[in-house]
Amino acid sequence: MMKKLMSVLACLMLSAALALSLFGCGGDRPEITGDEYEVNLNPDKNAEITLKVTSYESERELFEDLMAGFNKEYPNVKLEFDPLAGDLYNTMMGYYNGNNMPDIMINQSFDMLALDGSKILLNLDPYIKAEAASGAEDAFDESDYYDYFWKLGQRDFDGVQIMIPRTSDQVVVHVNKDVLKAAGVDINPETTKVRNGWTWEDFLEVCAQVRAYFDLNGVTRPIMDAYITWEANFNAIFQSFGVEYFTDGEVTVDSQATRDALDLIRDLRVKGYISKTTSSNGANFDGGQGAFMIHSRSIGLTVEELLKKDAFPGVSEEDLQEHYDVVSFPLIGDQPKIGAGVAGYSVASTTENRDYAWQFVKFMLSKEGQNIFADNGITAVPMRKDMADITDETNHWVRGYTQYNLSAYMYGREENYIAASEFMLERPSKSNDLRSSLATMVETYINFDGDEAAVAERLTEAIKTCKSDLEYWAYQS
Fold first, then answer.
1. Given this model, what pLDDT does residue 397 score?
2. Cα–chain-centroid distance for residue 84?
């Protein structure tokens, strides 16, 4: 019996040793830099180092171009590009446990908040403060960037900087002019309702006109691709109604405001403006068949899709503006909100090359760096305020697109119409679960068909389930 026990213990010890060698443990893990550390704003420009960057494979060429620009000042810094395979959070935690962390990583608000709890994202405030105090002509200055997007890279969206946003994404309405003209919608720039600042009532009036045209011609598909279970879209609608997910430590999603917002969304589906979320019968905006698409996708990427799918047969890129354009998201009620978000990059708190990593992300936000993003197809509005001029083609994000209504991507910023995702802050490490619970509530209700009593019951059930989920994710797990 003792021999068997010793044999089992030996196997367990061997298994543990193998696990440690594969995943790292304790002292084998890389050292984490805390919130206070010394910075060097003038590292040796001739140093021979390698910066490891983890991002999507689609960004490999982008980073090669960024490094080529960076090498003008730091000629001996090399790039090791590590393509991200799988979700960011689990990949980074696996890298940390395996002592294989990059110096710089792709990030976005949901993953950022979760990763911050693991302390593997470097607090960049010491660099930002040192830059401000340096008095250098090329010093980094936060005021050069859009505040409401810059904050989306901060701990709790109002704290230390743990991600550098690369561009600012804002939801707009992509418009198929051909469909609107065929439906008899006025698209004269001087008199049309389809313009920046149009109201939800204007939007519904145009939707009804297009739906009537579709019905008259036997077209059963919806009139728009709305991506309504995407947080940037449903959250903006909820906030326009004044929905509060959490108040003073209590889940307050069960409110009349929530019911009104959900009814507004379901009304779009019932009237045939959008499809059920479970349906494959979309509007096919990219194929030239839908009237609208509600999304933050840039003009550049959308033009590319429309041309690739031959949405407007025989139409060249030069003439596409006669058939396609964008306008701002329609304003709902007295406190309208427009969905927005950012993607960006974080520096790992484990890096031994943090001074060079900082210089690299700083270069990304320079005008040259932002133009490199645009040249690689990332033509969203740059983070820099001084690159907002949509008539200046030295700002590469507008190059070739000045004929379009690019101002739609910036509409409402001065009026503070940008919707924040504050619900994530109740439990940052569970932000993806909180988002999923809200999206499920939307989906459960808007897809349902039945008589008035059954619909009312489904609404109550959807909100009740969501409330229970939010209480669990935010407080009990």
1. 95
2. 17
